């Protein structure tokens, strides 16, 4: 019999569909400071060491998923963006932003302090996906 404790899932993967898995794994490792966990020999799957949740990469077009769940579409223009934003938290957002841009990330917005108390900057990866680079936000005090 199932109990509520074994029905609560752990968030395990975010899968990013990309043009070139090996290129994306290398880019994310250099630009955002992650270690590569796995890049299979076929270059159809790659993973980064990112804590409890794995960031994984797979090709945009592959018959295994296209037939089951539908075709993934890339952006048609630079004015479009996918309905996904990847967010990374850093102690030093300015240094992380600089490293990302120096390693091929496309600058969107330099880090600035937001009204909710988080320093945030934005870049795009090699596939046009928006990456938010932010500081930790201190939890609000409850009265």
Features:
4-stranded mixed sheet; alpha/beta; 143 residues; 8 strands; 2,3-Dihydroxybiphenyl 1,2-Dioxygenase, domain 1; 20% helix
Map the helices and strands.
Layout: E1 13-18, H1 21-32, E2 35-39, E3 46-49, E4 54-59, H2 63-69, E5 85-89, H3 93-102, E6 106-113, E7 119-124, E8 130-134
Parallel strand pairs: 1-4, 5-8
Antiparallel strand pairs: 2-3, 3-4, 6-7, 7-8
In words, what does this structure look like?
With 143 residues, the protein is α/β, with parallel strands linked by helices. The protein contains three helices and eight strands. It has a single domain (10-134), classed as 2,3-Dihydroxybiphenyl 1,2-Dioxygenase, domain 1 (Roll), CATH 3.10.180. It has helices at 21-32, 63-69, 93-102, and strands at 13-18, 35-39, 46-49, 54-59, 85-89, 106-113, 119-124, 130-134. A four-stranded mixed β-sheet has the order 1-4-3-2, covered by helices on one side. The protein has a four-stranded mixed β-sheet with strand order 5-8-7-6, covered by helices on one side. Residues 10-136 form the VOC domain. This is VOC domain-containing protein. InterPro entries: Glyas_Bleomycin-R_OHBP_Dase, Glyas_Fos-R_dOase_dom, GlyoxalaseI/FosfomycinResist, VOC_core. It comes from Trifolium subterraneum (Subterranean clover).
């Amino acid at each position: 019999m199932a109990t509520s404790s074994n029905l609560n899932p752990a968030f395990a993967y975010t899968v990013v569909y990309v043009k070139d898995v090996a290129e994306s794994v290398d880019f994310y490792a250099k630009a955002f400071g992650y270690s590569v966990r796995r890049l299979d020999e076929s270059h159809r799957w790659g993973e980064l060491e990112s804590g409890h949740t794995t960031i994984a990469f797979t090709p945009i077009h592959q018959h295994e998923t296209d037939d089951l769940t539908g075709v993934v579409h890339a952006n048609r223009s630079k004015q479009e963006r996918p309905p996904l934003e990847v967010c990374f938290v850093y102690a030093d957002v300015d240094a992380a932003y600089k490293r990302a841009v120096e390693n091929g990330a496309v600058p969107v917005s330099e880090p600035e302090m937001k009204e909710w108390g988080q320093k945030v900057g934005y870049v795009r990866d090699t596939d046009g996906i928006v990456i938010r680079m932010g500081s930790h936000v201190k939890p609000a005090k409850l009265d």
